[in-house]
Amino acid sequence: MAQIAPFAFEADEKVCKLYVEQLQDVVNGGDYMPMETTFSEEDDPNIFDHVYSSLIPYQHYLDFFDDGPKPQVYWIWVTSTCRYWRDLICGTPKLWCDIHVYRRPDWLKLCLPRAATQPSAGLVKLHFHCPDFPLFELNILFHRQYATSLQTITFGAHPVWTTFFRKLLSTTLPNLTTLDAYPHLTSFSAFLDINTTPDLALSADNAPRLDVLRLSLLGPPTSVDLFSRLRILELSEASWRIPFNTLLDILAACSSLERLRLDRVLADVTDIPRPGEGLRRPVITLPRLHTLVVTSPHTFRTYTQVLSHLGLPAVTVLRIASIFEGVVENGLSLLPETFSALLPPSSASRIRSLATIDTVEYIAYRDIYSLFGRTRFSSRNILQLSFDRSEANEHIPRDEPGWQGATKTGLRDLVRLVPANNLSNIQLHVDFTALDRGDLEVAIRTFPRLASLSLTGTGDVGRAWKILTPTDEEAEMLCPGLAAVTISDGVDGDGFYASEEFFDVLLRSLEARMARGARLRLLQLCLHHWTEDEYDTLQGKYLARLKKLVVGRVEYEHVESSDEDSGDGESNERMGESDDEDDEEDEDEVDEDD
């Protein structure tokens, strides 16, 4: 059911009555659907707009960093509290305690005293949405009766608000469980320098029940005791100025933590040892942590050292990413070192969910370097390692040795993060010409149970076929259970160009596999051709022969090239589909979750 933000508006009595009746249905569990037929023809259409135009879908800021399903929340902009709304609130205790405040204090003055004086209604959740709210009106929160009733405080990170809440949080809030400082639209202009972000001086003594802490643009706390009860910790756009050992002490105290997000907060961590240096500490086990997201540090070394100290037996989402803001010029040369802490044998025992991954997507193409791991029937990634060198960093040469070396390291080593026995689907998006034969062979050989292979990008993709099935009868055939292969074009006009040489290699490979009792059930080819005539010629020469070697379906598509001048508008027509239309069982066995 959609949620309605509890606000009223200025309108005449007739409209207010109508709206209250509609909203009461929602409170009672019904769905709210504004209907134009509710109004008669003589009603002023401006009244309809006034009531319903502000009722628009709007994603709740609390779900900003949440990767899961998001409830649909409707917001209503209001200017005052009308009598009918007051009557409704007086009879709905649930609405007393979930208080959303914009510019005017009317709503706060109506709900807060009622909720605080009647504990049976529950604890109070306060959400502040507008930095223009008169802060002197909040002095009532210092009254012991109101401070005791506070359970949740949400506000926009702004210097003025931060100053006020520093004072409030210096008092004792015994029932406060959630504190959320979200990035308001005005916050980024107020905090232009991430290194000057203020902090709230939180302590475990003043918020003994705090278990959800989300801070953006505010300095993270440094009190180790505060973290012992936290269930959710999300820190972003700030600078955590602490020594590395203190960071480890804080993580060791987070025994109850279920979700951890560190977004651009590790740049100023000091005294970070190099691998193999520093004091040896036991592995820090976070037994309940199911989601770990670390993004955009200025150096990759922090990644490596933090991960090498963590045991994550319950993690189901592991996301490590760096985007262009955090990239330094020598970042590429540190990339292999970054992920060394995750490589076996240590990762198998410390991150058990990696064993459930059966689909890997590896991208080393242009400015993106990523490795994704997920289960076959889910789009949610269990593992995500990514490095994005955007256009903002064009001063880094594209042919830098570090970039090419990192690409090879990723293909040969990073895929080893996933236990080989369960993996059945690989998607490669690379420049095949830039890779050595040995790099591809090691990667493919690692996964003997491979059933689906998707090859995307540019370069000489034919070498992949030569590796899968050498024509020499004495040579080993890799991946005997391979059932589906897809070869598709890249992005921005890049892709694989069809040629007789490519098809000859493909035919020899399929014939060699069939001779050894291995046949594909699906072959999809999406290739560029210099002309339509070339496509027609290759289709006529090879399509029928391919169908004889594939037990299921063969698809051969022409992808329009930017170099060709084809005006018929039919360049993406699918050609050569098998006559067998009852192959649904085969489709179920093929992973098409790109």
From TrEMBL:
<feature type="region of interest" description="Disordered">
    <location>
        <begin position="556"/>
        <end position="594"/>
    </location>
</feature>
<dbReference type="InterPro" id="IPR032675">
    <property type="entry name" value="LRR_dom_sf"/>
</dbReference>
<protein>
    <recommendedName>
        <fullName>F-box domain-containing protein</fullName>
    </recommendedName>
</protein>
<feature type="compositionally biased region" description="Acidic residues">
    <location>
        <begin position="578"/>
        <end position="594"/>
    </location>
</feature>
